[in-house]
Amino acid sequence: MSTRPLTLAHWRRTVGALYAVVRATSERDPAAAAAAFRAARDRMFVEHPDSPIPPSRRAAWPGAAWYPYDPAWRATGKVVAEARGAPIEIPLLADGVVRCSRVASIAFTVAGRDATLPIYWFEGYGGGLWLPFTDATSGDSTYGAGRYLYDTIKGADLGADADRVIVDFNFAYNPSCAYDERWSCPLAPPENRLPFAVTAGERLPPA
Predict the structure, then answer these.
(1) Which of 21, 94, 134, 196 is the most buried (most CB within 10 A)?
(2) Is the entire prediction scored with pTM above 0.90?
(3) Residue 46 in 3-state DSSP?
């Protein structure tokens, strides 16, 4: 029997534990929390069997490229209630679609700009919050298909409740498909494009 489901479960537990540390420490010292998060994530990408980095590249992989931490890109977003939308189908890069529903919008101010992003709930057993985005850096200095702030199926959760959502673009990360085409990832819907450059978070993967 293949052990991949077990190693994938371990990957998700490890990511969840990493974000638990982020939630516990980032309000006190967000820059230090981001530095620890980035270092731990790089170790996972080199050492874990379910890393999105191809095995042949792991030993020489230099680590992810990030913008320097900037507190101007961290905010507490307000949940703007909406009627739950009908399920939509988000194309995957390789094999089909994933279904999700828009459940609210998040209003926030970062780097002197007011903005709003829809947030989604994955349909299917268990569900999960998903907050992707693209911006004016997408396809230039960041991954063209967008980056993620939340994907609670995978344990990526900066802190959210019924009224507020932590929006810290310094933790914005590339989906796995940015590193290897064998991965399929939901692409950010067009309505999740920000009309300005988000110069925070993860940049294009090293060549």
Answers:
(1) 134
(2) yes
(3) helix
